[in-house]
Design goal:
By secondary structure, the protein is α/β, with parallel strands linked by helices. It has six helices and nine strands.
Length: 201
């Protein structure tokens, strides 16, 4: 299994060479949240991951009360400003809050966001969520997208998988001292889930 981490502005400056030299193969960095917020560390993280030869991933923190198309566009513009997509780069939707909306509205938001990103960027996003959130129906209709499951109480590489999925793709198994993940497969398997063109202009 490949080992990875995920970071946001809460980590501040990340020493990507250190992580790469200690067995980390892939990483996700927060890019955006909602329709206006951009993580101030994202560009630095995006460049740092690439320079350290990690498989690069960017994620958007979903605010389901907002417009999914606007949020998808905001996310992709942030990625483009940070240097754009290269072959194998991953995109993800962090779906863990319902903004006090019913599950039907949350899942509809997520499907529309994913459809927009897929249409505009040519990448099928990964869905980050956790067991209880998915079991409440917030992820209905998302089974075609790879599951990145937060399950810190489960053994590494053996998380419980909520409906609508039948299998996991990435397991976030701990947050100590930083969010740590595993991917069951090779680097080629992981990059096959990402951007398939040469380079995003």
């Amino acid at each position: 299994m490949l080992r990875g981490i995920d970071v946001s502005n809460w980590q501040g400056a990340v020493d990507w060479d250190h992580h790469a030299n200690n067995g980390i193969s892939f990483a996700f960095a927060k890019a955006t949240e909602g329709g206006t917020f951009t993580d101030r560390w994202f560009t630095r993280n995006w460049v740092g991951m690439r320079e350290s030869w990690l498989v690069c991933g960017a994620y958007h923190f979903a605010r389901p009360a907002g417009d999914p198309e606007i949020q998808a566009g905001h996310f992709l513009r942030a990625v483009r400003r940070a240097g754009g997509l290269h072959r194998g780069d991953l995109l993800a939707l962090d779906l863990e809050t319902n903004d006090h909306l019913p599950a039907r509205r949350v899942s509809d938001f997520a499907r529309r966001w994913c459809q927009t990103v897929t249409a505009l960027a040519g990448v099928r996003p990964v869905i980050y969520t956790f067991l209880g959130f998915a079991l409440n129906g917030n992820c209905a209709g998302l089974e075609e997208y790879p599951l990145w499951i937060s399950a810190p109480d489960d053994p590494r590489g053996r998380p419980d998988v909520p409906v609508p999925w039948q299998r996991w793709t990435i397991h976030q198994h701990t947050s100590i001292p930083v969010d740590r993940n595993v991917f069951r497969g090779t680097r080629a398997d992981l990059t096959s889930l990402g951007y398939r063109r040469g380079r995003d202009a």
